[in-house]
Design brief:
The protein has about 110 residues and is mainly alpha-helical. Helix content is about 85%, strand content about 0%. It contains 4 helices and no strands.
Length: about 110
Amino acid sequence: CLNTAFSYLIYACALYIGLSFVWANLCAVVSGVLVSFRMQRGLVFGEGRSGAFLRYIAFWAVIWVINIFIIWLMKIFVQDSYIAGALALIPVTIISYFVQKIWVFA
């Protein structure tokens, strides 16, 4: 929850300074990855097996593409990158949790 709020703040700030939603989302994902790996590994999922960081990076690369697609779809209906990004948080957060639980930190 804290990481999601942090990432959305980065996304919104990047939009505010004029970046497109694609670049704003990349800034949010990169900053989120840098902050969240240790926190999620230790507090949410436990230590997990070795190689988790490489799986984590690969996972977030795929999630970034999925997130961009979802934001693009949302923009068809709401046409506002802030709202589209916020709406995309719902499915992306759910997907993220289960993939990390099953694959990244299993």
